[in-house]
Specification:
By secondary structure, this protein is mostly helical. The chain folds into two domains: 1-158, no CATH class; 234-309, no CATH class. It has helices at residues 3-8, 10-24, 34-55, 57-75, 80-108, 128-156, 162-184, 191-269, 273-285, 290-298, 304-309, and strands at residues 26-27, 76-77. It is elongated, with a radius of gyration of 37 Å. The chain starts with a helix and ends with a helix.
């Protein structure tokens, strides 16, 4: 694509990478503001790599891929397979958004230009209106796409397997590759056969994509079931602890009641009825142990029976 387009969408590319990686992967602890840090780093490093690409396309392209891979592996936690999956999903999504923006330009370009433009000519546009249109479409579609995609992956990325990713990405990425091959071979006589092969690949990839969606639904249901089991176990553990506390409180209450009854029985046997009445009144107004009341009313001067009760 034209270099002016990349200059206009540079902030969007840096934002989408930092936002997507920080949403799906866990940033390392030394990053206080991970999205802002990665964004600023990309804003500095991506133009330098793009300048290298103007000198040598192959080296520049490899350098861009290594730049994003290095950021994923240095600044984020997780397994190697998870980091690679996150990177490839981002790269494929970025390519799909770019292709969709180019298709939109092909459809709406007749509104301001009489001469139509082919899809393979999009990468060499020089008109200001074309550059602004494809850049704006790329940014608008990309922002919406990465927000929705990152929210979905954040919810289900932890339990998806590599096979599931391949089932989802193969039907999307394969037609893109086939389309690029057909565009590069349009002047050869094999074009009809390549076009037919392209549509066959698209038809074959549809059941694979449907299978991947079904696998995601199954894995999400299993993950939700496990979450419910874990929540139920936590609630059972909390209930068990509450029951243990209630049991301990009941034992203490039984012990207090037994002490009160022993104290009242002693006061009644000693015919200290006024002290017994005061003792009953104190039970209703104070939350003290039976031994304390016994010491206060039954035997204030000390004695052998008091020491036995204590």
């Amino acid at each position: 694509m034209n270099s002016y387009v990349y200059i206009l969408i540079l902030p969007y590319i840096c934002w989408s990478a930092s936002y997507f990686f920080c949403s799906v992967l866990k940033p390392r602890r030394f990053l206080n503001h991970p999205i802002l840090t990665v964004f600023l780093l990309l804003m500095v490093s991506v133009p330098a790599v793009m300048l290298l690409k103007t000198q040598n396309v192959t080296i520049g392209t490899i350098s861009i891929q290594l730049l994003f891979l290095g950021i994923v592996f240095i600044f984020y936690c997780g397994t190697v397979s998870r980091k690679l999956a996150c990177y490839f999903i981002y790269a494929i999504s970025l390519t799909l958004v770019e292709i969709l923006a180019c298709n939109i330009l092909v459809l709406i370009r007749p509104l301001w230009a009489e001469v139509p433009i082919a899809f393979n000519e999009i990468y060499f546009v020089t008109d200001t209106a074309d550059i602004l249109c494809v850049s704006l479409a790329d940014i608008c579609i990309g922002v919406l796409c990465f927000q929705k995609e990152s929210a979905l992956l954040k919810r289900c990325f932890s339990y998806l397997h590599l096979k599931t990713f391949l089932q989802l990405l193969y039907p999307v990425y394969l037609p893109i590759i086939a389309q690029q091959v057909i565009i590069s071979l349009t002047e050869y006589s094999l074009f009809p056969a390549l076009a037919a092969a392209y549509w066959i690949l698209c038809l074959i990839s549809y059941p694979v994509f449907r299978k991947g969606i079904h696998v995601i639904q199954t894995q999400e249901e299993a993950a939700i079931f496990r979450q419910h089991q874990l929540q139920l176990m936590k609630e059972q553990l909390s209930l068990s602890r509450e029951m243990e506390k209630e049991y301990q409180a009941l034992r203490k209450w039984n012990h207090d009641v037994e002490n009160h009854l022993l104290s009242l029985s002693y006061l009644m046997e000693m015919e200290k009825y006024e002290q017994a009445a005061s003792y009953c009144h104190s039970i209703n107004t104070e939350n003290t142990s039976g031994n304390t009341h016994f010491e206060r009313y039954a035997n204030p001067h000390g004695g052998h029976y008091e020491s036995q009760i204590s």
